[in-house]
Fold this sequence. Notes:
By secondary structure, the protein is an all-alpha fold. It is built from three helices and no strands. The longest helix has 11 residues, at 44-54.
Amino acid sequence: xxxxxxxxxxxxxxxxxxxxxxxxxxxxxxxxxxxxxxxxxxxxxxxxxxxxxxxxxxxxxxx
Length: 63
């Protein structure tokens, strides 16, 4: 069903999916429809600053 959905998507639309599994475990039919992009997690200081801004918390100490 997912392959049919992807085939019928209008131009200019995107489908985002996430996994922590080995992409080679996907069948070739799925592999040819997706582009793999590896994202790195933010460091702790960046994450702490984001959370403090988002919920108006005191700024974390530097370092």
